[in-house]
Sequence to fold (265 residues):
Amino acid sequence: MTITLLLWVAMGTGFIFLMTCLGSAVVFFFKNQVTNDIVLTIALGFAAGIMIAASVFGLLIPSIDEASNSGMTSWLPAAGGFILGVFFLFGLDKIIPHLHPVNNVTEGISTSLKRTSLLVSAVTLHNIPEGIAVGLSFALAAQHPENQTFLLSAMALALGIGIQNFPEGAAVSLPLRKEGMSTTKSFFLGCASGAVEPIFGFITIFFAGLIFPIMPWLLSFAAGCMLYVVVEELIPEAHLGEHSNVGTLAVMAGFVVMMVLDIAL
Fold:
């Protein structure tokens, strides 16, 4: 593990964490509940679109390419790692107590935690695969220092996830404010929900440095984690209520933004 890799991961995960905090700051500007609902719908849909494209272009395709270049059966790590990632998040979803604010459903093991704690826990759970994905992308770039394409792809992934973390931060702070929490505390808790991203980013590169031969499995694992979050939570919650068409358009917009970023860079 090199100093350069550590700096890359620090900047990448630090950026996506910062964008979560900036998104949480939206709570200072939206006071009207109808406006809050629309913003939340757009935030969830846009985040879903970004994560779908990031999973495909930034994780699954590199996983297939890495497996092929290593002489493996190209589809096996992509499919196998993806399935493992899905069941990993499925397990966390069943274990970690959290609350979905849009449909007011509590999941995970029974707990005495307050609603506000469960709200923060829900989006903190979403942010784990994002930190893993960014960490792995920069680890892959470090594995191929002769090819700048990998570094540019990692930067595009960090930029895309950072962009979607802006509305995702709002998706934490706005419901907390709706629950009656102060604006300032809603902001700080929304910001704190993104702290797992740098943590899991560094944990990931530590293990990736030990097990580079299974990098294709790790990349698809991160993709499975991210798409589980999208299908299980983000898209359904973006289509509840009166603004479902807005949610659909936001998903498409997020996908296009991330696709363009990945191809352009």
